[in-house]
Amino acid sequence: MHKLLMVIRREYLDRIRKKSFWLGTLLFPLLMLGLIFFQLLLVDVEAGKLRKIALVDATGRLLDAFQAKLSEEKLKDGKPAFRVEPVQVREDAEAARRSLEPRVNSGELFGVITVGNDLDAAGNYRFYARSVGNLAVQRTLQRALRDAVVGLRLERSNLILEREKLEKLLSPIELESFQVAAGGQAKKKGFDEAYFGTFAFVMILYMALLLYGVAVMRGILEEKSNRIMEVLLGSLSPDQLMTGKILGIGLVGLTQMFIYAATAGLVRLYIAASPMAGDWSGVLDAVSPLKMLYFLVFFLLGYFLYTSLFAAVGAVCNSEQEAQNLQTPVVMCLVVPMVATFFFVANPDSTAAVVVSLIPLFTPMVMFMRICVLTPPFWQIALSIVLMLAANYLFFKGAGRIFRIGVLMYGKRPTIPEILRWTRG
Amino acid sequence: MEPAVSLRDLVKTFGPHRAVDGISLEVTRGLIFGLIGPNGAGKTTTIRMILDIIRPDSGEVRVLGLPAGGARDKVGYLPEERGLYRKTKVLEMLEFQGAIKGASLAAARREAAGWLDRIGLGEWKDRKVEDLSKGMQQKVQFVGAVMGKPELLILDEPFAGLDPVNQNLFKDVMLDLNRAGATIVFSTHQMETAERLCREIALINRGRIVLGGPLAAVKSRFGKNSVLVEYDGDGDFLRSLPGVARVDDYGGYREVRLRDGADPQALLRALVERVAVRRFEIVEPTLHNIFIEQVGEKPADA
After folding, report:
1. Least CB-CB distance to A6: which of B79, B99, B145?
2. Which of A232, A360, B91, B199 has its CA 20 to 30 A from that of A192?
3. B204: which DSSP letter?
C-alpha cells in the first residue's frame, strides 16, 4: 500500500507541478467564460444602436404596416430600435437598391429590403446587408414584413380588416416543451437547451477520457523508452506500477474536473442570483448537482475502462508512432458513442439507444446523454453501472497481464492475436 | 542461514528459444558472486527471474530464504538497461526509489542526501536529472539501486560504459556494502573485473552453467599450465613449438597455454635459443582464457 501511494504521489505531483497543466486547467474555463461574456457584451453593444432600414417597395403599400410593426421594437432606453426609410421606386427597383449600396457599406444604413410586385413569386423578398449573421434582427424584420405582406394580400383579396383585428389573427403561438421526469414533476425545457447542455457535457466526457487515457499510455511509453521500467520493476510489482499510474493520473483528472465544476458552480450561483435567472433556466438545469454526480460516476467508470485499454497499448509499443496505430481501435471506441449521441439525442428512448447505452465501452457517453435529455428507468442506469463495473474488472485484469509481459519487450511489436493470448495467461 | 540466492532447475523459453535451460546454483551469503558469460547466454534472463520480474516456466527461485518476489524490499537491483525520470530533480528521484523499497519519505530523503554527498553530487540535488552529464547520471542510477541498504545487491553489467573513475567508485561502494554484510551478485563479460572482485563465479553459456564454484577452485581445475612471456624479436614460431596448445598475443606480452603434461622448462629453453626473454612467469590460466576456451571455440549459435 505504501508503495502504491508512493507511485500515485509521484505521478500526481509530477503532472500537477507542470506549468502546462495549470495553463490548460485555468485557461479552458477562463476561455469559456470569456467567450460567454464577450458574446453578451457584443449583443449588448449591438442592441444599443438604432438601425436604419431602407425599404425598396415596388407595391408602394407596405410601408405603414411595416413601420408600425417595427416601431414596437424598443431599445433599452425606450427609444425605437428601427427606423424605416422608404425609397421611391421609379422604374428599376434593382437600380434603386444599387444606388443605396454606398450607404450600406459606410454603415449608415443597416440594410436594404426589396419587395417586388408579385407577392407570391419566389425570391420576391430580399434583405441586403453588410452582415447577415444577426439572426435575431433578421427574424424581427421577417415577422414585421410578413405581417405587412399578409395585410396586403388580404386587401388584394378584398378582405379589409382593421389593424387590431389583423394583428390578433396573426399573433404567433408558442409551443412550450416539458420534460416528464420520473419524480412526476414536469420541467419546462427547450429543445435547444437540452441539446446544447448535453453536448457540452458529452464533449467534455469524450475529451477527458481521451486526454487522460493517452496520458497514461504516453507515461508508460516514456518509462519504457527511458529504460526506467526495469529499474522500477526491481522494487514494484507490475500491478502496483500500472495501478499507481492509472490512479495518479486519474487524480490529476479529478483535480481538473473539480476546478471546472467549481467554475461552473460559481457561474451558476452568479446566474441564479441575477435577474436573468429565468432566461437561463436551461443552463441552471444543465449543471444541477444530480447531473454532476452522474457525470462524476460515468467519468470515473469510463476512465478506468479506457485507461486499462490505453495502458495495454502503451505497454506493448516501443514508440509513439507505433502506439498511434494500435490506439486507433481504442479511440474509435470513444468516437462511436460520440457520434451515436448525435443520432440518439432526438430519440433517447429508442431500443437502439437503450442497447448501446448498456454496452460498457459506450455507456459513459450514451447513458449520460440519455440521463440528460430524458430520465431513463432507474433499472437501466443501475444495470449499466453494474455492467461497467464488471467490464472494468475484466479489462483491468487483462491489461495487467498484457502490461506484465509487454513492458519488458523491446523490439518487434507483438500482433493483436498474440496480445490477446497474453490476457488468458 | 539459507543462501542469499538459490536456483533449482530453472527453465525459461521465449518462443522456440530456450534462454535458460536448467540452471541450478547457490550463492552463499556475504559473497561477491560473478555471473559470467557471453552476450545472449541467459544472464539477464536468470537475473530477471531472481527478481521475479519474469517468471520461470519451471524450476524454483528462492531469495534470502523466501520465494521469488517475497524479499523484494531487501534486494537492490541495477538492470543493464537503466534510466531515470529525466524531468525529475535528482534528490526526488532517489527519494522515490528509496520510498518504493518501503522506506518512509523522510528516511529515503535523508539517505538520498547522504549518498549524493558521498558521490560528490551534493550540490546537484535540486537540479533536474536531464541537466546531469552521462557520468553523473550513471552514479545516480547506481545509488538508486543501493537505496534502502539491501541485503542482496544484484547488478547486471554494472561496469559497462563507465569511465575508469566511475568504475572505481562503483567498485569501492560495492566492496563497502559487501564488508557491511551485503551479498553481491553481478553479471559481466569483462573477465578482468570478475577475476578481481569475485570469490565465486558461474560461467553461463547457452542457458546452462558450464563452469562454477569458487574462483580459485575453478582456476586450479585448469592447472598451472599457462606461461606469460615477454621477449624482443619476432615470436610467431611460438605457436609451432611442441607442447604449446594456444597463444594469446596481448601486444605487450603473450599468454601461452601448454598441453597437458608439457614441460614449461622445455619452452623456456626453446625461447632462450631464439630470442632475448625479458619475462617468463608460470601462472594459473586467466579467467579470460578459461572463458575463451569454454565459450569462444563454440559460438553461442553454432
Report:
1. B99
2. A360
3. E
Distances (CA, A) of A388 to A218, A255, A363: 25, 23, 8
Cell reading at A388: 461497467
Residues of chain A neighbouring B78 (CB-CB closer than 8 A): 231
Q: What's the length of chain A?
A: 425
Among A133, A127, A144, which Cα is nearest to A73's? A144
Q: How many whole angstroms separate alpha carbon A130 and alpha carbon A110?
A: 8
Domain residue spans of chain B: 5-219, 224-283
Can you give the C-alpha Rg of chain A in angstroms?
Answer: 30
From the candidates B81, B97, B129, B151, which should be mutated to test the interface with A, based on the most A CB atoms within 10 A?
Answer: B81
The answer to whether the beta carbons of residues B30 and B43 sit under 8 Å apart is: no
Per-residue pLDDT of chain A (425 residues), as tens digits, is: 899 999 999 999 988 988 888 888 888 778 877 776 776 666 656 566 788 889 888 888 888 888 888 888 777 677 788 888 888 776 777 888 888 888 888 888 888 898 888 888 888 888 888 876 667 788 888 888 888 888 888 888 888 777 778 778 878 777 776 666 554 455 555 555 556 677 778 888 898 899 999 999 999 998 888 888 888 988 998 889 999 999 999 999 999 888 887 877 777 777 777 665 555 555 566 667 788 888 889 999 999 999 999 999 998 888 888 888 889 999 998 998 888 887 887 778 888 888 989 999 999 989 988 888 777 888 999 999 999 999 999 999 999 888 888 887 766 777 888 888 887 76
CATH class of B224-283: alpha beta
Give me the helices (H) in chain B, please.
43-50, 90-99, 105-118, 134-146, 164-179, 191-197, 215-221, 264-274, 287-291
Q: Do A3 and B102 touch (CB under 8 A)?
A: yes
- Name beta bridge partners: B7: B25, B61
The reply to whether the predicted model has a pTM over 0.95 is: no
Q: Which CATH number fits domain A52-170: 3.40.190, 3.30.950, 1.10.3470, 3.30.310?
A: 3.40.190
Beta-strand relationship, B152-156 and B75-78:
parallel
In this complex, is the C-beta atom of A415 within 8 Å of any C-beta atom belonging to chain B? no
Strands of the sheet containing B244-249, edge to edge, are: B244-249, B254-258, B226-232, B276-283
Contact B100 A235 (CB under 8 A): yes
Per-residue HEC secondary structure of B112-129 comes to HHHHHHHCCCHHHCCCEH
C-alpha cell at A49: 444602436
CATH number for region B5-219 = 3.40.50.300
Domain boundaries, chain A: 52-170, 180-424
Query: Predicted ipTM?
Result: 0.80
DSSP, residue by residue, B93-160 = HHHHHHHTTT--HHHHHHHHHHHHHHTT-GGGTTSBGGGS-HHHHHHHHHHHHHTT--SEEEEESTTT
Q: Are B139 and B119 in contact (CB under 8 A)?
A: yes
Q: Closest by alpha carbon to B147, among B180, B103, B181?
A: B103
Give the H or E element holding residue A282: helix A281-286
Domains B5-219 and B224-283 share a fold: no
Question: Would the CB atoms of A234 and B69 count as touching at under 8 Å?
Answer: no
For residue A330, give how far its alpha carbon lies from the nearest alpha carbon of chain B (Å): 27
